[in-house]
Prior knowledge:
The chain has helices at residues 12-23, 39-49, 62-71, 81-90, 107-115, 125-142, 151-159, 189-192, 197-200, 210-218, 220-233, 270-279, 293-296, 311-321, 325-341, 349-360, 369-391; strands at residues 2-7, 28-35, 53-56, 77-80, 96-99, 119-122, 145-148, 172-179, 240-244, 250-256, 261-265. The protein is α/β, with parallel strands linked by helices. Bound molecules: NADPH dihydro-nicotinamide-adenine-dinucleotide phosphate and magnesium ion.
Amino acid sequence: xxxxxxxxxxxxIGASTLDLIARHPDRFSAHVLAxxxxxxxxxxxxLRFRPAWAVIADAAFEADLRQRLAGHGLSTRxxxxxxxxxxxxxxxxxxxxxxxIVGAAGLESTLAAARAGKRLLLANKEAxxxxxxxxxxxxxxxxxxxxxxxxxxNAVFQCLPGGRPELTTAGVRRLVLTASxxxxxxxxxxxxxxxxxxxxxxxxxxxxxxxxxxxxxTLMNKGLEVIEAHFLxxxxxxxxxxxxxxxxxxxxxxxxxxxxxxxQLGHPDMRTAIAHALAWPGRVDAGVRRLDLVALGQLGFEAxxxxxxxxxxxxxxxxxxxxxxxxxxxxxxxxxxAAFLDGRLPFLAIAEVVAGCLDRLAAEPVRDLAGxxxxxxxxxxxxxxxxxxxxx
Length: 392
Ligand code: NDP
Ligand code: MG
């Protein structure tokens, strides 16, 4: 029986993970469930999964959580705040940590799980984008293993020999990440001037949280994934390509020196990647519809529209600049996306805010967590200034 800590249990990845745990009660148990503020949803999950621990990251909701759990007669113990998240990620009895918090808020618990040598199932791509070198160092210090949940990286992992080998030794020429193109594929900049958060969050293939949905609409999601692939697999920017594949059936590909190209296919359902990582190196049924190639008929591929969706190249530029540049890109993007979702920033201005921060803030080497958090904060303040200036 593997004991799982689900950080971000009330989110979209959290729900898919818990669906799998519920399908395999003999193999997996939800030992820790963590949320940010959604006490009601967390309590409902505690009633269903009876975890040993519940964590509420916003400590202002701790008393409410304790009261409601007690009201239901549950013996679930409670942790709160960011210290509570870290404690939950490092409990001795936890085998696997599912890092499914959205944004930089997930960084410290992700690092703590890596340092503690847990099997780390990484959905929280912002953590590796911000702090790639620190996360890799924490993983080797902890001696645990990282399995990517992001569908593209999970696909690459599955197409590589032995998961995350040295790419040159393995004869890999190139990684090809597929992108659906998001809800605005084929649109022009004029079309995009007045799009709303509801339009940006209506993804054609995947049902996801609001932040990643907006990232998919700007193609920043693919940009973050290019950086994620660089850190996960040690591939340089030149060896990572992006191809638009509107059906989201091919989740990514690995091209080898001999001309072989291996791909992983499946319906766009995150349970496949999560089931792979939970059961690795075994396999379990994920409850996912089987692929019928004849019914699909055709698969399409096209180049991304880099002139309209400039976030993709901003991410490549941040990766090439190195150091804290990916953290600056991520922080600026988180602030800009939040402002867009609040109706304070037009869609096309998200890329302008990110470009402005990358222009104004010089990248520095990543030394330690404190320095990195400082760069993150500086970038957020700069982004806020640019957003305020745009509104004024
Ligand atoms: P959701 O918005 O659906 O869920 C986010 C989760 O994180 C919720 O449980 C939320 O709790 C929690 N959370 C938010 N802020 C904080 C905080 N400050 N401290 C602690 N917990 C917090 O997001 P998704 O599930 O869509 O995405 C999660 C991560 O997985 C993201 O990094 C995303 O990029 C990545 N990912 C998602 C995919 C998907 O298909 N959804 C695919 C690939 C990657 P609460 O409910 O209390 O607010
Ligand atoms: Mg992805």
